[in-house]
Amino acid sequence: MNADEMNWLLQTIEEPETAKRFVQAQYELGRIPYHLIVDLARQQGWTDYLPVRVWTAPPISVEYATA
Question: Which of 22, 43, 59, 64 gets the most CB atoms within 10 Å of its CB?
Fold first, then answer.
């Protein structure tokens, strides 16, 4: 399934929570890649969507001290 097909399907779903669950289920079934979930979530404005927060988290700097 590609982004155009997903966008078309999402237009038929009225409730945002239902759309989020649909996208997550399609990913879990292996029908869409992870990057498509992130792209769709950004397009839909799902800022509270966990996969988007995880994917877009800033890198963490780790410093090592030597003795």
Answer: 22
